[in-house]
Amino acid sequence: MPDKITLSVAGRRVEAFTDYHIDSDLYTAGDAFSLTMSDPGVVINDGARCQLSVNDRLEMTGIVDRVTEANSKQGSTVTVEGRDLMGLVVDSYVEQFVTLENITLKALAEQLLATVPFINRKAIEYQAGIAGAAAAKTGSNSLLDTAQNKAQVEPGQTIFEVLKDYAMSRGAMFFSLPNGTFVFGRPKAKGKPVFKLTRRRDGRGNNVIEGRRIRDISQRYSKIIVLGQQQGSDPLGAEEINTKAEILDDQVPFYKPFVTVNNNDGKSPAEHARLLLERQRAMGLQLIYKVRGHSQGSRNWTINELCEIEDEKFGIFGTFLIYGRALNLDKKDGPITEVRLGLPGVIK
User: Fold this and answer.
1) What one-character DSSP code corresponds to residue 170?
2) Inside any domain, residue 44
3) How many domains does the chain have?
């Protein structure tokens, strides 16, 4: 059976598209979609909540940002563009000063997200064991449960930036899954791969139609320094006020320092530096493959899953993390999926 894309909006389902692009990425806030159709059969309004399904499985929950109607001699088209629910968090700003002393990440998230529409705060996942790979939901002794000492959040900051920075001070990311779940934690790093990409020279079992490998040092640094100054505390000496963490990347061939500031508390610099190094190493090697269709076996291609790669042309063999996935309808080749992969769990 051919792969099927379904847009559910205003109580109706639309399944006939002339082209589409649906992107999901662990490292990009506000996953975007664009769908073009000749006649949707329903009035689609900007600001409407919608869901996108692939083969009748929910793959994105979001908001319609823009509707473009066009007419020409070739006919009429309607293009619907939008983002997932994280796009609302990206667009929403903190309205008042918020005191953060001795507040946990969960308490802060529930407070800031209370005014953002469509967000199910009870469904947010707060991972325990964030330094590990197969993290479970929040348990006791989780760093995310530890209150922090940063003084306050100021109006004019976006809610996403505040929560992202607060999570990074605990070595965690703030990201969303395709089904709309918000997560404070780490991407998957261990487990059995559920997908496989094959590109053998003899063509046996191949499912890759195009491959790219990007090795990029531009955003990598030999030394990461995170400085901080604790606020709202009365320590005995300056060494307790000023905090600092350094972490080295011996894979960078020359001296290149990166310096940033995180003022949350004494634990923050080390956890922040650790996450920065992981992110930089992950982006240092990017693998991008195109395959036909949007599923493999009974599973839709999706992010935050592990994939086995057997690529004789690039000499790549092993398990990698799918951090990005784009579903496209190509007029020439039909449904195509772009799968973006990187190293899983580069820091253990």
Assistant:
1) T
2) yes
3) 4
In the numeric block, the tokens 């922090």 are attached to 148
Whether residue 347 is contained in a domain is answered as no
- For 27-134, strand residue ranges (E) read 32-37, 49-54, 57-72, 75-84, 98-99, 125-126
Do residues 203 and 238 both lie within one domain? no
> Which residue type, as a one-letter code, is found at position 62?
G
Under DSSP, is residue 43 helix (H, G, I), strand (E, B) or coil? Answer: coil
What stretch of H or E contains 176? strand 173-176
Spatial CA neighbour of 1 closest among 295, 333, 321: 295
Residue 272's domain spans which residues? 223-283
How confident is the model over 300-323, as pLDDT tens digits?
Answer: 999 999 999 999 999 999 999 999
- Among 166, 185, 204, the domain-final residue is 185
User: Residues 58-80: pLDDT tens digits?
Assistant: 999 999 999 999 998 888 899 99
Residue 37: give its domain's CATH number. Answer: 2.30.300.10
Supply 97's token pair. 């000063």
Q: Contact at 8 Å (CB) between 318 and 297? A: no
Amino acid occupying residue 85: L
Overall pTM > 0.85: yes
Q: pLDDT over 90 for what percent of the chain?
A: 58
Q: What is the mean pLDDT of residues 175-203?
A: 92
**Whether residue 180 sits in one domain with residue 119:** yes
